[in-house]
Amino acid sequence: MALRIRRSIRLAPGIRLNLGLHGAGLSVGPRGLHVGVNRRGMYTSAGIPETGIYAVHHIRSSQGQHPSVAGNAAGLVAGIMAVVVIILVLVVVGYLSR
User: Fold this and answer.
1) What's this model's pTM, rounded to 2 decimal places?
2) Binning pLDDT at 50, 70 and 90, where does residue 54 land?
3) Is residue 63's pLDDT more than 50?
């Protein structure tokens, strides 16, 4: 189990400075969906606010960074689809509980 500590500072609406144990990063976007850059490079993130459920996709600038990683956008698409399905389930459950 890894210990993670993160502090986020809002610089402007939709712009955050993220500070952690291993460095700083900058992210831009609305709550639950953003694009960012940190020491590992650029990434995108999509999630359901206040649930802790999210998916992160790191954008590799060159193939030489991690030669053992071979893939395509299937993981990102699957993560986004999972988030969409979860949102739909929560909306339906909220609608039915009225």
Assistant:
1) 0.53
2) confident
3) yes
DSSP string, 21-32: TTEEEEEESSTT
Show the DSSP H helices in 1-98 as ranges: 74-96
Cα separation of 38 and 97, whole Å?
A: 41
At position 23, the amino acid (one-letter code) is: G
pLDDT in tens, 22-35: 788 888 888 888 88
Write the DSSP symbol of residue 5: -
Q: What is the CA radius of gyration of the chain?
A: 16
The mean predicted confidence, pLDDT, of the chain is: 77
Output phi, psi for 17, to 5 deg. Answer: -100, 120
Q: Name the burial class of residue 75, with classes exposed (0-12), middle (13-18) and buried (19+) by CB atoms within 10 angstroms of its CB.
A: exposed
